[in-house]
Amino acid sequence: MRVAAKITLSDSDKQILEKNTNSRAVSIRLSERSKIVLLSAEGLDNKDIAQRLNIPPNKVGLWRNRFAEGGIKSIIKDKPRGANLGGKDTLKQARLRKKIIEKTTQGKPDDATHWSTRTLAEALNTTHSFVHRVWKSVGLKPHLEKTFKVSNDPHFEEKLCDVVGLYLNPPENAIVFCIDEKTSIQALDRTQPGLPLKKGRCGTVTHDYKRNGTSTLFAALDVATGSVTGECYQKHTHKEFLKFLKKVESQTDKDKDLHIIVDNYSTHKHGKVQNWLRRNKHVFLHFIPTSSSWLNLVERFFGMLTEKQLKRGIFTSVDELEQKIIEYIDKNNKEPKPFVWTKSAEEILEKVNRARSTLDNIRSV
Prior knowledge:
This protein is α/β, with parallel strands linked by helices and 365 residues long. The chain has 15 helices and five strands. It has a five-stranded mixed β-sheet.
């Protein structure tokens, strides 16, 4: 049977400990430790102290032993966090840290797609708090995942330089637009009224909803000003695209060239669209590379529209949905702010080439 360490206090130590228990200036942890030592000095055993202070007996034993070994300084100053995990041997702790990083980045548990702090701690016989600190120190977040796709367009570099050139060095006496369609926007209504936001509770909505139809938004972003021209249609064929092109062209100065950045959707290359472009020689289409929607700045506007108007919106009809979309565009156009492109084509190519090289290495393994 283990015997609790005997505590003997000097007058100065006792005075300091009593001051800690009565002062509001010290932390709760230090006050609690001081009480443990004072009660230990009175001859109480760990179980009685734990019951009196409403804390675990092993906690009482920890601080009682620590004071017995190191005196009052040992309870005032904490040991470095994680020191007990690697022991006094810092090399052992460094090895454990390296093992955590390797296992996180190069392996997976048998019954899951990624590690959690607790599953990895169990596998390496350490604590989840230490695993968390290691992850935090090196920026590892196994629970998060991002999507990507590297373009395989054989003319990627040519198209990239063309579009980025329009952003960073637009032609004189010309207007640059980014045009795209946001398709299948759903007019969703909830089956029951939601509860409003209030102190201590977030707003709530029912998990199910009623579909009231869909709409497609055609939007043209003026790169220089940030203003947006928008129109909602029920379809998104070449007819609607051509109709929207004519609307954008009719609202711009006829003495200026019109450079329009679009994606590779087949309707943008339809024969009737090409015929119209041949008749309107001041209008030019510039195609982004395939799988490169990030290169079209109007996508940033679509993201803002989704987040601020559509994601939590409740729409009882398609008409109401389209009305809200146009209202959002009108509000944006009162004080438009352009999206500023900063990356050069060379910087983007360097990053894309690194990604391709990494993918090639993975495939070759």
